[in-house]
Amino acid sequence: MEISTKDRILNEALIMFAENGYRGTNLRDLAAQLGLSKSALYKHYDSKEAIWNALLDKMEAYYAARFGSMSNLPPTPRSSEELVALTMRLIGFTIRDPQIQLTRKLLLTEQFHDARVCKLATKHFLEGLANMFAVMFGQMMQNGLLKQSDPAMLAFAFTSPITSLVHLYTREPDREAEVMERIERFVRYFIAINQQETDWNMQKTLISSDPGGEDK
User: Fold this and answer.
1) Lowest CB count within 10 Å: 130, 179, 188, 208, which one?
2) Domain range list for the chain
3) So what CATH class is 1-55?
4) What is the CATH number of domain 67-195?
5) How far apart are CA 24 and CA 192, in angstroms?
6) What is the distance of C-alpha 163 from the center of its chain?
7) Which residue, among 10, 171, 21, has the nearest Cα to 95 in the 3D structure?
8) Tens digit of each residue's pLDDT (9 = 90 or more) over 45-91
9) CB within 8 A of 1, min separation 6: which ones?
């Protein structure tokens, strides 16, 4: 499907904003990169600020649709292995999707210069991810998969180390294999210390209902 000129502008703007920052990006250079005149560019967006805000809108929607959000939660894991698989899928998308790679770089550099970007960075690097997992962990507790606890605090404890490792990858992308391996090891460790001991409780029930069972 042919991409529209407006989308071409936003795609190229994402690259330039991520590499040069908002203040370091010149619309004349952006137009030249697209093979457009500056006047042709203004037919679609009347200012650099308009391009910037349209780009942030687009990337926020892109992330929510593919990664998830409070209004588009991933399915709640029904087992520990599903939690591992879900986490690794989300992290794989985060570090490998080309548009998300650029968006993450843009958020990291521009969060100190733009109030909206600051809020988006907080949402994507901390609160949004933790809030999503808080809901899922609450449901997993109800389903007997995790020990009863404070879902919000448990989600914070779960997502903070993962986010730190994603930032490590952002700084040193050649360490991707190491980062992914450490994240999976952490997720399995987290599950081991927080899962509901269903099998052990079931074993105790069977023993108590079978006189002399412990001696068999």
Assistant:
1) 208
2) 1-55, 67-195
3) mainly alpha
4) 1.10.357
5) 48
6) 9
7) 171
8) 999 999 999 999 999 999 999 999 999 999 999 999 999 999 999 99
9) none
